[in-house]
Amino acid sequence: MSFVTALETRRSQYALTDASPISDQEIADLVKKVVVDVPSAFNSQPQRAVVLFGDASQKLWDIVKETLRKVVNDEEAFKSTEAKIDSFAAGHGTVLFYDDEDVTKQLQENIPAYAANFPGFARDAAGMLQLAVWTALAEKGLGASLQHYNPLIDEAVAAEFGLPKSWKLQAQMPFGVVAQPAGPVEKQPADDRVKVFGL
Description:
Elements: H1 3-9, E1 15-17, H2 24-37, E2 47-53, H3 54-71, H4 75-89, E3 93-100, H5 101-110, H6 118-139, E4 143-144, H7 154-161, E5 167-180, H8 190-193
Helix pairs in contact: 2-6, 3-4
């Protein structure tokens, strides 16, 4: 599969099963490989990831549900929220994406001329990692979506998994075999979004 075809394969898939065409070890190794290979400004490598399987993944979504239950007062409204969370929990696992803020702070101290830019550079690195992992999972036959329940769940998740305080949660990616493929989406024409000169 070519890189561009893999990008086309990557979609926001919400209906997932707990099956996987590859082993958990292969998934973990895949995420590790991508984390190492995805670039970052000044080769600072602020990207971090946590891969959750089985009970660990379920615990994450239990935390999300428990946290949101405290802020959604309308029980009827919470039912749709609960159904959505349950659909994420039904997947095979979850990848959590983090930014190590200590890396950015150190860069700001070492290179003060760029201090204001480093948080943006870290966000760029985080986005590249998320897309790369998402695409790599799709290439292996796994569907996924990108969720953002941070910062509401940050403290509880860090405590549950014993994560460093400097790691700031960026996104959550439930994954699994797709039970029902996502439907077509409307995309703006490339010529409206890309300008080419000198061709």
